[in-house]
Amino acid sequence: MSLSVLRLAIDKKYGLLITTNQARRVREKALKSIEGDHEDQYGLVWDYVDELKRTHQGSTVFVEYDESEEDGTVGVFKRIYVCLKLLIDGFKAGCRKLIGLDGCHTKGVHKQQILTAVALDPNNGWWPLCWAVVEK
């Protein structure tokens, strides 16, 4: 939402006239509330990996990160690869033996790509095989 539209919406709904700087701060707070802090979200990657390994025995999950030697932290996230065993078993059992690859760019602070490998199931639907998030 543009700042001028936001200002008009606040004026219409609440009868308040706010400055452009106030509208900018409101929009930034709203986006942070909706999307969350990027660093907090990347901190959850390790919980995601642990849960996948716990609930999907035989699946493949790789995470790569830059190790930080200065402060002794675990590191900064670089990329992740996920391949669930159930999806591979389903592919072998009934999907067409044709694999498609696709990728898209992410928006935001961290410029990355999401790469996916898919197949066609017997109903001509997409069957995901694996996915990865990699640096641009």
Helix-strand blueprint:
Layout: H1 3-14, H2 20-35, H3 38-43, H4 45-55, E1 60-66, E2 76-83, H5 85-94, E3 99-105, E4 112-120, E5 126-135
Antiparallel strand pairs: 1-2, 2-5, 3-4, 4-5
Helix pairs in contact: 1-2
Organism: Lithospermum erythrorhizon (Purple gromwell)
Protein name: Transposase
Summarize the structure.
With 136 residues, this protein is an alpha+beta fold.
Commentary on this structure:
It is built from 5 helices and 5 strands, in the order ααααββαβββ. The protein is of the alpha+beta class and 136 residues long. The chain folds into 2 domains: 1-35; 37-135, no CATH class. Strands 1-2-5-4-3 form a 5-stranded antiparallel beta sheet. β3 and β4 (112-120) form a beta hairpin. α1 crosses α2 (20-35). The longest helix has 16 residues, at 20-35. The protein starts with a helix and ends with a strand. 4% of the residues are buried. The model has no long low-confidence stretch (mean pLDDT 88).
